[in-house]
Sequence to fold (213 residues):
Amino acid sequence: MALSQRLFDAIVDGHAQLAESLVEEELKAGADPVALISETMIPAMDEVGKLFREEEFFVPELMLAGRAMKAAMEPLRPLLAAAGAKPVGVVVAGAVKGDLHDIGKNLVISMLEGASFKVVDLGADVWPEKFVEAIREHHPQIVCLSALLTTTMTAMRTTVEAIKAAGLRRDVKILVGGAPISESYATEIGADGYGATATDAVALARRQVGLSN
Ligand code: B12
Fold:
């Protein structure tokens, strides 16, 4: 069986150690890290989502697959990060209040770091006040909000509103993303940009700090 198919299966089946060692094997065989993520690892998570929808998988399988994806990301993180480059901008990033999905947000962070941004990672389930606090402390040009649930995407709106109420809205550009988010939702809540992928996040962030893509 091809290496990439074995990696896909290891993530879907939630075998964290195997997934990590298969990524290491792929890298030794000369695989491109970004292609590995977008062509094998993200499709594996999509398959997990499909199996969950079809009620073949339940929460425990979702958790195991999430763990396997995180383990598989480990050998890739240093390769995505740009070595020692001077930061082109500061980003504060987090998954919004109530949302525990952090794999996509972590991918966005790795790609931004790879594009020489300094990223302050607030983690998952980040309350609006925490974003406000972090803006005051770190003075970012950009705030990235991630949400994966239709029930938590509304927390993006409250986060934008909290930033506005704190008088900080003009200081930052707000980018939003995550499976249920769309361009029109971003416009509706007053965000500055929407990206469907981590690569889009980099392009948007570069534009916000006046760099061409
Ligand atoms: C893994 C997983 C989990 C894991 C998360 C582990 C972790 N540490 O992240 C666990 C087990 C915790 C989990 C829990 C739940 N989950 Co879940 N989960 C998933 C699953 C299978 C994969 C998500 C993922 O990691 N995808 C891969 C990443 C790389 O993709 P991504 O997050 O979309 O990110 C990309 C883009 O969206 C974008 N992006 C993301 N953020 C941002 C931000 C910016 C600024 C930009 C520009 C771009 C961007 O870039 C990323 C890379 O390209 C999805 C199904 C799916 N295919 O999405 C369901 C899914 C999201 N989960 C779902 C559900 C229902 C739940 C639970 C409610 C289940 C339950 N009954 O308890 C809980 C909720 C917990 C909570 N409060 O958050 C549903 C959501 C349905 C809905 N419409 O709301 C989904 C869609 C499954 C399904 N098909 O029904 N889940």
